[in-house]
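Deviation from plan, reported transparently: phosphoric acid mono(formamide)ester complex.
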Amino acid sequence: MGLSSRHLLGLQGTPREDIQLILDTAVSFKEIINRPIKKVPTLQGKTIVNLFFENSTRTRTSFELAERRLSADVLNFAASTSSVSKGETLKDTARNIEAMKIDMVVVRHGAAGSAHFLSRIIDANVINGGDGQHEHPTQGLLDMYTLREKFGRLEGLHVCIVGDILHSRVARSNIYGLKTMGARVSVCGPATLMPRGIERMGVEVYHHLDDVLPTVDALNVLRIQMEREAGGYFPSLREFHRYFGVTKERLDRAGRPITILHPGPINRDVELSADVADGPQSLILEQVQNGVAVRMAVLYLLGTQS
Ligand code: CP
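Because the crystal trials were delayed, the predicted structure below was used instead.
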């Protein structure tokens, strides 16, 4: 039994069995990366290109580490130091790189649909490392892995995604994935940062954080995306923090243990107070660790398909 697709472009429409297989496979890889010798020969002889047109800390390093731990040959491509700065298109860049006989591409790009586009024009397996405001499937998978590891299940779990939903590819991938796995999903944020018609994705919508906290098991707190001008959607960061900031005081008032996730990078004391980010309820660094195992699972499952 393998994955039903040659690519991982998003979690919208990804079957439950595929998600289950990736999460179960990641359990074995997490065990491997905690051994003294963390490398396995699984993808020896395969060449993987990390094609990053947008900045990244976690996703790029995590993919690179996952690729190297699977013994693949790795080529890192940064748009800022490439011929993209001379006007070369995504299509020409990808075709030229593919001509060097590569097997897989991880792509991050500011345009929604860029990973789908690449999958149509090149033969290599394509993994979406974040495309504009559309999807970030491996982030959704590592968030689900982290929740499943903590709670032992996803079915019936109440997860609320908080903050800048409008600009968030992480929110979309989490909603699609969690709904497929049977979780209860809500979103909470100012009306101006809520995509129109989001209810149609099967989520509950809240505009007051204190209303959702009494029933929630986990909060996935999103970054305010200043680079996408999210700061223009509410009066001030101070006001955002007052109404939607996840603080220790607010969590204490909820009267139940609430697990905290954040995909990073964090705007400390804007969407999440520093004491909560670093506190016992936070699984933020576990997310980062699990990201390597989940990405190893995705690369292994795609790279060993017959
Ligand atoms: N979570 C995430 O995508 O972080 P980076 O932008 O650092 O990759």
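The chain has a mean pLDDT of 95. We consider this an acceptable substitute for the interim report.
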